[in-house]
Amino acid sequence: MDRYIVMALFLMLVVSTTAAQLAATSHPRIVRSSQESEAKPVARINGAVLTEFDLQREMVMMFPYARQHGGKVPKNMEPEVRRGALQMIEFEELVYQEAVRQKMQIGPARLDQAMTDLRAQFASESAFQQFLKAEFHGSRAILRKKVERSLLIDELLEREVTNKSEINDTEVRAAYDRDPARYSQPRRVSIQTISVLIPDGASSEQEMTMRRRAEDILHKAKGTQNAEQFGALAENNSDDDWRIMMGDHGLVEEEKMPPQVAQLAFRMKAGEVSEIIRVENSFCIVRVNGNEPARTLPFVEVQAQIRKTLQAQRVDQLRGALNRRLRKTAKVEELS
Predict the structure, then answer these.
(1) Does domain 2-168+310-334 have CATH number 1.10.4030?
(2) Separation between Cα atoms, residue 92 and residue 7, nearest integer Å
(3) H helices within 250-298, ranges in order?
(4) What pLDDT does residue 66 have?
């Protein structure tokens, strides 16, 4: 769950996922049980109660495909998602309480703007009112307090995590120099393919029929003059999903190809079309469009990714340190 937590900490928590979904669909995003179960305490942080509904909301935020599963997290994923969601809502409450302890405040103008931005996500006033009624008993005052809470959380995280996670140029360069081999790129070949699939359990006669079809396509493929013509042939004749890309796989590493294809493709020249290749349950025809030798990626090509990776690691470290520090002086009771 760490990757989710790191990401979530940087979200502007002004607008909940519930609000965003209701704005788009005008339907609540989670399946609710009774009011009694929704109000069931799942944790207390220094006496502040976190409820089952808080937890369920966070679980669906962590599993955004819940609507495709009847508004619920799949059973096989529920324990892990539930644990991660509980950790998140506990952490958010700890951060909020710390912001209050430090007497941090959100100015009225910023809070007004956040409320305006939230309302603007809804297609109509009735959709907004539905959200308000479903989540906050129809009370704008309760919603405003929740928005203020979210802004305070964001403000403290900005100060304690975001502002301390910057990576300077020296650190980026040092990471590259420590392990340049990590940034090596194996040789690659640019290919297009046409596949004729052999049905599962095909008889020898059926397989021969597919072979003759592949031979007919091969004859046409050999007559193509360029990638566009081969692509048009793939689009109209290939049985695999690559046909919608005109059979174009782009640059592919050897280890990501079937061995039978790789053995030929890396020996072929640009513009050449292979003979028929038997690959598991298909007959395959390959066109090579270019080759790229193995190389070590220069620093200029990878520095942005290195910085991003280092910053994500630092964010994780800072978040973890903040969580441990806040828990050390807090009374955290888990009740579920």
Answers:
(1) yes
(2) 13
(3) 259-265
(4) 56
